[in-house]
Design goal:
about 550 residues, alpha+beta, Four Helix Bundle (Hemerythrin (Met), subunit A), Helix Hairpins, Heat Shock Protein 90, 6-stranded mixed β-sheet, 5-stranded mixed β-sheet, 18 strands, HATPase_C_sf
Length: about 550
């Protein structure tokens, strides 16, 4: 398995060889026409980019040669130097030297010395004549036999990878059907072929998924400027710490959560971290600290936004929720702090006291939840008054294939994404009670409401659910405990089938308007299976509970 250093080196090589080829082409154009503006501009840009990349990788000499050539092309562009005479020869020597250095990097060899070349480039920059050999030596055999090299890396448009992944998804569905058929027919030859197809398609699937992975750093590294600008607007002093930039995730997932992460970071600076005066009064350092980090947890990627600010004022959120009509005073009094924090993610909910450039405009944390719901992700919140707050985005590594638990209700299978499942329980009727017309059990010292899944699926109209009764509970009850927005809900099902990876396809019109389903998948038996949308099921239960 490649290390991150190897991957970065390969990426550098791919771009550097591409730059080198472009330099040679544009130099030839410039030699034919010294006033060729576009070629000159492109040479300046290429040298600038190569300089930055080389310095970032620690290739000092390569970066210095590119820097001197960049300066020289800048002088030519401004008319202070002309592309003629000895200058042309030194520039060509410089580009050749860059090529040799780049090839040395690719071969992990010691980089050739550039001392004499740098001296001549420095003289040309100062307007002095370069020190050259008295006569140009004829080309050696080593030089008409120069090898032409191509990069080992290619750039692929994301939409091409998307299309390839969709095709692999179709293959996986058919593969499962073939394997199931082979098992049913009990044909050894067909079964062996089906199992071979299973292994190949599995490797292909993960290879395509791997090709779409990028380091989280491509997004995280954009935030120092964001934090600086927001802190300046809010008259606050904030230090940002980044970690986990090498953690790999599907590029499309990163794209989808970009706005959500931006909102969380701005929110942390605007609402979380106090002003310098407030921090002094609280006995804190004037400099606020914000941490943006990525890490892995099992098959998930966690991105955390953590600040050392004032924390969430639970009582203030409780009052605001009652004021907004999101809950009653009586109901709010019985909610724990995490249930209260969940109101922060309601549309338009804001704790801002006044409208500023970055807050109080009615765009709340609901945008974060919407992004996560679309991915089948989760949002965790931890906060302590006066100490700070941490928001954790729990994301799948890939959105193409998801782990799911298959359950059965009225002889029909339904798939529940594993990301929203806590546990499965087999409960005796004595372990279930009725509280306020709702079935309830206790799990990990928490009261968990239970609702028959068929009741949610068959819901019609705006009437509340009927009062629950234990009269119909006979024998072990199969309960799937799901979790959304820190709210647990037990789904009563007929039986559990199995756990498996599924390829989710979107529902077509008009079925795509049904909130309870997040898509559809095809099982190995060829049977169509609806994928349940746990956030939608949870919201439906909350809105219609007795």
């Amino acid at each position: 398995m490649k290390t991150r250093d190897q991957e970065y080196r390969e990426m550098f090589m791919a771009e550097a060889l591409e730059y080198y080829d472009s330099m040679s082409r544009h130099l030839s154009e410039l030699e034919r026409n010294p006033s060729e503006g576009p070629a000159l501009n492109e040479l300046f840009r290429l040298m600038h980019n190569l300089k930055a990349n080389a310095r970032a990788m620690g290739f000092t000499d390569l970066g210095e040669v590119a820097h001197h050539l960049e300066t020289l092309f800048g002088l030519i562009r401004s008319g202070e130097r002309t592309f003629s005479g000895p200058l042309v020869r030194v520039v060509f020597q410089g580009v050749d030297a860059l090529g040799n250095m780049i090839r040395a990097v690719g071969a992990s060899q010691e980089m050739p010395s550039a001392g004499e070349l740098l001296g001549n480039l420095d003289r040309l920059v100062r307007g002095e004549a370069p020190v050259l050999a008295e006569a140009e030596e004829p080309e050696t055999d080593e030089e008409a036999n120069r090898k032409l090299e191509l990069s080992d890396l290619v750039y692929i448009q994301v939409k091409k990878l998307d299309n390839l992944l969709n095709l692999v998804g179709e293959l996986v569905i058919d593969r499962d059907r073939i394997l199931t058929l082979a098992q049913e027919l009990d044909n050894p030859a067909l079964l062996a072929t089906a199992q071979h197809l299973f292994r190949i398609s599995d490797d292909l699937q993960y290879s395509v998924m791997d090709a779409r992975l990028v380091g989280v750093g491509v997004l995280l590294n954009k935030f120092p400027r964001v934090v600086r600008d927001v802190a300046s607007t809010e008259n606050k002093e904030v230090e940002l710490t980044l970690s986990g930039q090498d953690v790999q995730i599907d590029r499309n997932i990163l794209q989808i959560i970009t706005d959500a992460l931006l909102h969380l970071v701005r929110n942390a600076v605007s609402h979380g971290i106090e002003t310098p005066e407030e921090r002094r009064q609280a006995g804190k350092p004037v400099l606020g600290h914000l941490t943006l980090s990525a890490l892995t947890e099992r098959d998930d990627v966690l991105i955390q936004v953590s600040d050392d600010g004032r924390g969430i004022n639970t009582e203030a959120v409780r009052r605001k929720a009652i004021e907004r009509g999101l809950t009653t005073e009586r109901a709010a009094a019985s909610l724990d702090e995490k249930a209260i924090w969940a109101f922060l993610f309601e549309p338009g909910f804001s704790m801002a006291q006044q409208v500023t450039e970055v807050s109080g405009r009615g765009v709340g944390l609901d945008v974060v939840k919407l992004a996560l719901d679309s991915l089948g992700g989760q949002l965790r919140v931890e906060s302590e008054m006066g100490k700070g707050t941490t928001f954790t985005l729990v994301l799948p590594t890939s959105i193409a294939v998801k782990g799911a638990l298959l359950v059965e209700v009225e002889e029909r299978p339904y798939a529940v994404p594993l990301l929203h499942t806590d546990t499965v329980l087999a409960l005796h009727p004595g372990q279930i009670s009725v509280v306020g017309g709702v079935l309830v059990t206790h799990f990990q010292e928490q009261a968990v409401p239970i609702v028959p899944l068929r009741l949610l699926l068959h819901d019609e109209g705006n009437e509340p659910f009927p009062l629950a009764s234990k009269d119909d509970l006979h024998g072990p009850q199969h309960v799937l405990v799901v979790n959304y927005n820190n709210r647990r809900l037990g789904l009563l099902v007929d039986r559990f089938q199995r756990q498996q990876n599924i390829v989710i396809k979107p529902l077509s019109k008009p079925l795509d308007s049904i909130d309870l389903f997040g898509g559809v998948t095809l099982l190995g038996s060829g049977q169509v299976c609806l994928v349940l949308d746990v956030p939608a099921l949870t919201r439906l239960f909350i809105n219609k509970r007795p």
